[in-house]
Amino acid sequence: MFAVEAKELSKVYGKEKTIAVDAVSFSVKQGELFGLIGPDGAGKSSIFRMLTTLLLPDGGEASVAGLDIIKDYKEIRKRLGYMPGKFSLYADLTVEENLNFFATVFGTTIEENYHLIKDIYVQLEPFKNRRAGKLSGGMKQKLALCCALIHKPEVLFLDEPTTGVDPVSRKEFWEMLKRLKLQGISILVSTPYMDEAALCDKIALIQGGKILSIDTPSAIVEAFPSNLFALKGPSMYTLLQATNNCPMVEHAYAFGEYAHVILREKEQSPDALLAYLVEKDFTALEIKRIVPSIEDCFIRLLR
Amino acid sequence: MKQFLSFVRKEFYHVLRDRKTLFILFGMPVVQILIFGFALSNEVKNSKLLVFNQAQDEASAKLINELEVSNYFEIEKVVGSYSEIHQTFKQGDIRLALVIPANFGSDLAHQNKASLQLINDASDPNTATTLNNYVNIIVQDFLAQNYPSAKSPIAILPQTRMLYNPQLQGAPNFVPGVMAMILMLICVMMTAVSIVREKENGTMEVLLVSPFKPILVILSKAFPYLLLSLVNVTSILLLSVYLLDLPIQGNIFMLYAVSTLFIITCLSIGILISVLTNSQQVAMLISLMGMMLPALLFSGFMFPIENMPLPLQVISNIVPSKWYYIMVKGIMIKGLGISSLLKETGVLVFITTVVLIISIKKFKIRLA
Question: Cα angle vertex A212, ends A206, A213, to 5°?
Fold first, then answer.
């Protein structure tokens, strides 16, 4: 049995029939950390809302913990933990009151499942009498995670949990997810940050409501042809234009302070490209072969 | 049950921590009672009276004294000529002048008959008429006490009795009105806004994805406002009994019972609004325009329903505050029992049931 299984799931919005989710199929195994990776507006939240029984799909079917999302929505709601993309706790209640409230709503107590949230809650404990609205972004997300976990859900749905959170807190957050996975909780997480994709067991790259690729992060990276180079030089803009005009280049794009260049031929050396650029009056160039990141794969899949 | 209580406690936290709302919630009834009780009154009190006493005898002194001890008049000054009367009127300070002719006392004693002249500032005709009536009543009293043998020249003398409110105070009318208005405002608007706020903040999303029954979410939202409204009913009643000297004639438990019924009616309307809207502003506008206005216009508190054109009279029947207003007036002022108010109770129960059924049917167990 899969923790989450979606078959041809579709969602259409409004009178203009905007397709938000287009026949998406994927499955999350028990105890797996599955990432939906994609930019804003890719349809991640719509998928989450359908799976958490908040929205009815317009096509296809899906199950959570082996239960149908349409028929068995009441049973599913007892078994899943959901953390929406927007901060959705009571800002005028303290940390402790929020947690207590959600524990009671789910028919449990903080003490009963304290072991699940202990790692996270110790960090929140010094602020337990502070109003939730006055917490920092990272603390808010940790509290929201505690509230989603307090009833020991079988499947955890986290919609962009690290958006708007500083890099250190983001790292901590992902470490917590790993520990939760070890406790046997299946986790479906979405994020627009490509660097977080490598921390998942399996990822689905998603864009415009369609899944571009589903695999383990390493398999996705391995599927990338090994002819990716990082190029650096003065006046990046004109350099990028010239590189893209070069016949042996498949695609070149800006990537931080570098330009990433994919060459057409598999085992081609970058020397020919360098020679081409020097001929075009570019100087002080620096080029090196690099291992592709998930973002490189994503950009390539988008083309 | 434990879930329900925890939810209710959370709701109290929301209300008690929002100082501004709290102030409005408990301040408004007090302020309204004070305003209606002391500022916006249609009773005419302490009107300035001018006296031109040509008689200067015992009888006239007694009459002037009677006028002065009543709450209605205050003797501004005593003059000695007609021209002075006109001058004082022109200054605009006085509303009424009383001219007592010479021989007033002896005429009364010997002929059993005397005349008085009243000069009114009739630029405000209603006030002038009211003041005339006051003087008439006081003069009749004066006659009855001092000259029981004096005969009125008119053969038919209507003996008026003002039932339930012999002093024609304003309070018996506006206290039930204010109660209906306050409860309507608090119950409808506060519930609607507080439920819609959960939708806006996204907390509804989390609550829906929980084993908590959606309908319980709604009920536990409404419950705290039921309690708060009963607190308000109590404070209004305390104010009207101790500050406005308006005793409760009927059974106080029945008064609370019908208030609870009306509060439940309002809460269900608030729930319906919250089910149908998605933003706090819209919910607030609908509650104010769609609920407060009809409550003011059609309850019979400000404008008599009998004077309205028939279509409006028909519309007024679906306004819950009209029925509550009738009931509160009945119990509080007339001291009626429940047997006289069965129809009103029935109408409120019916409205509540219909509204609740619609809102449960319309309640979304999902986001869209």
Answer: 105
Range of the domain at B122: 47-146
- State in Å, rounded, how far the first CA of chain A is from the last one: 35
The enclosing domain of A232 has a CATH number of 3.30.70.2070
Do B79 and B223 lie in a common domain?
no
| Span B290-333, pLDDT tens digits | 887 888 888 887 788 888 899 988 988 989 999 999 999 899 88
Query: Does residue B153 carry a pLDDT above 60?
Result: no
Choose one of A181, A206, A221: the last residue of a domain. Answer: A221
Q: How many residues in chain A?
A: 303
Whether B184 and B115 share a structural domain: no
Q: How confident is the model at residue B41 (pLDDT cuts 50, 70, 90)?
A: low
Residues A251 and A294 in one domain: yes
- From B111, B146, B181, the end of a domain falls on B146
Q: How many domains does chain A have?
A: 2
Considering only CB atoms, which residues of chain A are within 8 Å of chain B? 49, 52-56, 73-74, 77-78, 80, 82, 84, 86-93, 97, 100-102, 104-107, 147-148
Question: Exposure pattern of B155-177 as b/e (b: 16+ CB <10 Å)?
Answer: eeeeeeeeeeeeeeebbbbbbbb
Greatest CA separation found in chain B? 95
Shared domain for A169 and A237, answered yes or no, is: no
The answer to whether the Cβ–Cβ distance between B10 and A56 falls below 8 Å is: no
Query: Do A217 and A257 share a domain, yes or no?
Result: no
Q: Token pair for residue B166?
A: 């012999």
Is B13 in contact with A93 (Cβ distance < 8 A)?
yes
Rounded CA separation A238/B131 (Å): 95
Q: Rounded distance, CA A274 to CA A288, Å? A: 11
Side chain identity, residue B269 = I
How high is the pLDDT of residue B258?
Answer: 94
Same domain flag for B203 and B334: yes
CATH number at residue B122: 3.40.1710.10
Interface test with A, best of B194, B204, B210 (most A CBs within 10 A): B210
Place A14 in a pLDDT band, splitting at 50, 70 and 90: confident
CA distance A106 to chain B (A): 6
B260 vs A267, B66, B230, B300, B320, CA distance in Å? 83, 47, 7, 21, 13
- Structure confidence at residue B293 (pLDDT): 83
What is d(CA A79, CA A154) in angstroms, rounded to the nearest whole number? Answer: 6
DSSP A109: -
Q: Quick one: B217 and B328 in the same domain?
A: yes
Range of the domain at A202: 4-221
A82-94 pLDDT per residue, tens? 999 888 899 999 9
- The answer to whether residue B158 is domain-embedded is no
Please tell me the distance from the alpha carbon of residue B211 to that of residue B216, in angstroms, as a whole number: 11
What is the band of A222 on the pLDDT scale with cuts at 50, 70, 90? confident
Q: DSSP class of residue B18?
A: -
Q: Is residue A188 exposed (0-12), middle (13-18) or buried (19+ Cβ within 10 Å)?
A: buried
Burial of A247 (0-12, 13-18, 19+ CB in 10 A): exposed
Last residue of a domain, one of A173, A195, A221: A221
